[in-house]
Amino acid sequence: MNEGDPGAGREARPRRADARRNQEALLDAAAAVFVESGVEAPVRDIAARAGVGTATIYRHFPTRADLIIAVYRHQIEACAEAGPALLEAGPTPHAALGRWIDLFVDFLVTKHGLAAALRSDDTAFDALHAHFLDRLLPVCARLLDAAAASGEIRSDLEAYELMRGVGNLCIGAESDPRYDARRLVGLLVAGLRRPH
What we know:
This is TetR/AcrR family transcriptional regulator. It holds the Pfam family TetR_N. Keywords: DNA-binding, Transcription, Transcription regulation. InterPro entries: Homeodomain-like_sf, HTH-type_TetR-like_transc_reg, HTH_TetR, Tet_transcr_reg_TetR-rel_C_sf, TetR_SbtR-like_C. It comes from Actinocorallia aurantiaca. The chain has helices at about 5-35, 45-50, 55-60, 65-90, 95-110, 115, 120-150, 160-170, 180-190. The protein is mainly alpha-helical. The chain folds into 2 domains: about 1-60, Arc Repressor Mutant, subunit A, CATH 1.10.10.60; about 65-195, Tetracycline Repressor, domain 2, CATH 1.10.357. Helix 5 (about 95-110) runs antiparallel to helix 7 (about 120-150) and helix 5 crosses helix 8. The protein is globular, with a radius of gyration of 20 Å. The termini are far apart.
């Protein structure tokens, strides 16, 4: 590389941005396949959804555990970033909380099968769980605080309690077609409202 070439540095940045976008598209595709077929879905299904070859996936994620961990982290970040955006978009803090909880439910569905897939790597799972709590608890707390401050919901609920309750309502939903976890979670969120 010629140090005197002013264009040399500019050329590398778009490639990094393109690579990041491509990796995010691949992770979105993997998450969608995991929701439909579980974390043991064939890599070729993920590659087909992402529009890439299986070699591309293995180049980025040499093992299934690497891919699952990356999808899980990607979903955590998307859920964390959505909270403030939803709060800003309104129309009310309670509505933003409800939309965020919907995203959280989607995330929990994607997470299905993670523990079994990572059973051989307990330290990786522990680190992911800590990251999950570190990133999502403050977002949920901010949404709860805003809705309570606006007078829309009761103020005596902790973010951990709500997230744990939603998680518990989602257990087993994927294996029982008669059970609609999203409906029950919606009732839970509606039940947070203060009586008029």
